[in-house]
Specification:
Shape: rod-shaped
Order of helices and strands: HHH
Helix content: 40-55%
Number of helices: 3
Low-confidence stretches: 90-95
Mean pLDDT: 76
Strand content: under 5%
Radius of gyration: 28 Å
Largest sheet: none
Length: 95
């Protein structure tokens, strides 16, 4: 029985080198592209939420408070409800 470790004039264990080399090259190219060229664009594996961040409920609440539509007490009351629903941490205004 011929195996890669016991070879008689065949390619031997070096036959595994070239597929591993090509896998390393492909992995390296994909890694470089993910870190550079694909970073600026909205890559498909990024978040699926297509809604702009300015339209979040907390941002709308912050704009309403800034424009004077609601007072500070109502702002903090509504913000605490949104904190429970969206899991925001901290109390620093609109996100």
């Amino acid at each position: 029985m011929q195996t890669l470790a016991h070879w008689d004039g065949g390619p031997g264990p070096w036959i595994l080198f070239f597929p591993l080399l090509w896998a390393a090259v492909v992995f390296g190219v994909v890694t470089v592209l993910r870190r550079t060229a694909w970073r600026g664009r909205g890559a498909p594996w990024r978040g699926a939420d297509a809604r702009p961040t300015g339209d979040s409920p907390i941002a709308v609440l912050g704009r309403r408070f800034a424009s004077g539509e609601i007072d500070e007490d109502e702002y903090w009351r509504r913000l605490s409800v949104l904190d429970e629903q969206f899991g925001r941490t901290g109390r620093g205004g609109a996100v």
